[in-house]
């Protein structure tokens, strides 16, 4: 009954059936390939993604590489390399003690000896068959792939990089901003209408970038916590009308967790309208097909790893008027929005 009510509500939303947000492939087609690999990005493009999203961390020799975190034991086979056993350590990242192996302790050449593996192996068991096949890509390789596929397909393929832990990296002498902007400029990205968004959970990083580039910037926010570089400030404070106005002073949009956009029942929270009133775009993250990641109204059955009503969840988010959405399954997200 609840799902029927949600569906009826969506039909009642003016323009809901015509919603056409951009589809941002979260770490590539990470529902079907190990995340942040060239294979995942290539498949995402085949699946019709408008943008591909690389998370950016740095190597010891200052190269931007693509990993969800700078700690890489969960996404590579580094633990299986005895030559790197002594590099396992514990570091404080954004106030939290993290144990493992970190990209900033490896040169690019050393990282090239590692291979990627599925991060959510207990949920996406089929992806384990790709473990050991792919290297860690550089940011430049992701851009080159996008450019090559643009030439092949005749359509624009956007780049949506996230700066991971920028304050931490700056504190160890490896700031993101200069190499990030230099690489984008090298491949012709610099204008506000170029197919690039740069995102961060931090505030200072975006404000610094605002003074250096005309490319579009997105303030990431979550339903809990606050910016790691802004002690005492909660993301919730930034989502008030006054807070959104302040964000609009340095960013072009927000990237909220999707549970800030719709409730457990699929109902519109009103955040999108408030952000639009402040002149901000809205690109919520991250829509995944598995029950364990879906709102209660869109779960099907008792298996947390089974796919639920993913299409219904995508349509519920789109009906709020979002300008884009992140998904691990860009092909399924695109299909959900088809008439």
TrEMBL record:
Which reaction is the catalytic activity of this chain?
A: a sn-glycero-3-phosphodiester + H2O = an alcohol + sn-glycerol 3-phosphate + H(+)
The segment(s) forming the GP-PDE domain are 21-337
Q: Give yes or no: UniProt keyword Cell inner membrane.
A: no
- In the UniProt record, which is one GO cellular component term? periplasmic space
Say which enzyme class the record assigns.
hydrolase
Give the signal peptide range: 1-19
For this UniProt record, give its keywords in alphabetical order, as a comma-separated list. Glycerol metabolism, Hydrolase, Signal
Task: Name the Gene3D superfamilies on file.
Answer: Phosphatidylinositol (PI) phosphodiesterase
Q: What GO annotations for molecular function exist for this entry? A: glycerophosphodiester phosphodiesterase activity
Which PANTHER family does the UniProt entry name for this protein? Answer: GLYCEROPHOSPHODIESTER PHOSPHODIESTERASE GDPD5-RELATED, GLYCEROPHOSPHORYL DIESTER PHOSPHODIESTERASE
Q: Would you identify the family this protein belongs to, as annotated? A: Belongs to the glycerophosphoryl diester phosphodiesterase family.
Protein name as it appears in the record = glycerophosphodiester phosphodiesterase
List the source organism. Answer: Sphingobium phenoxybenzoativorans
**Biological classification of the source:** Bacteria, Pseudomonadati, Pseudomonadota, Alphaproteobacteria, Sphingomonadales
């Amino acid at each position: 009954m609840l799902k029927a009510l949600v569906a009826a509500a969506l039909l009642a939303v003016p323009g809901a059936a015509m919603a056409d947000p951009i589809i941002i492939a979260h770490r590539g087609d990470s529902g079907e390939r190990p995340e942040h690999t060239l294979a995942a990005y290539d498949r995402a493009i085949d699946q019709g993604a408008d943008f591909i999203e690389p998370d950016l961390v740095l190597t010891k020799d200052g190269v931007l590489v693509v990993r969800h975190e700078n700690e890489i034991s969960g996404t590579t086979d580094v633990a299986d390399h005895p030559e790197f056993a002594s590099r396992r350590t514990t570091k404080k990242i954004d106030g939290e003690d993290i144990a493992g192996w970190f990209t900033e302790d490896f040169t690019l050449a050393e990282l090239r000896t590692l291979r990627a593996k599925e991060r959510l192996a207990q949920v996406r068991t089929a992806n384990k068959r790709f473990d050991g096949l792919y290297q860690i890509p550089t940011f430049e390789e992701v851009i080159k792939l996008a450019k090559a596929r643009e030439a092949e397909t005749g359509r624009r393929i956007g780049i949506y990089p996230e700066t991971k832990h920028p304050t931490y990296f700056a504190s160890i002498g490896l700031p993101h901003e200069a190499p990030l902007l230099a690489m984008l400029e090298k491949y012709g990205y610099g204008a506000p209408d170029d197919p690039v968004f740069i995102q961060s959970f931090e505030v200072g990083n975006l404000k610094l970038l605002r003074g250096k580039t005309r490319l579009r910037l997105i303030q990431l926010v979550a339903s809990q916590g606050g910016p790691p570089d802004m002690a005492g400030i909660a993301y919730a404070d930034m989502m008030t009308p006054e807070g959104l106005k302040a964000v609009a002073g340095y960013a072009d949009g927000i990237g909220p967790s999707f549970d800030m956009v719709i409730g457990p029942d699929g109902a519109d929270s009103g955040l999108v309208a408030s952000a639009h009133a402040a002149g901000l775009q809205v690109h919520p993250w991250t829509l995944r097909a598995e029950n364990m990641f879906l709102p209660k109204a869109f779960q099907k059955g008792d298996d947390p790893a089974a796919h639920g009503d993913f299409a219904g969840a995508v349509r519920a988010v789109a009906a709020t008027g979002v300008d884009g959405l992140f998904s691990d399954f860009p092909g399924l997200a695109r299909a959900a929005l088809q008439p």
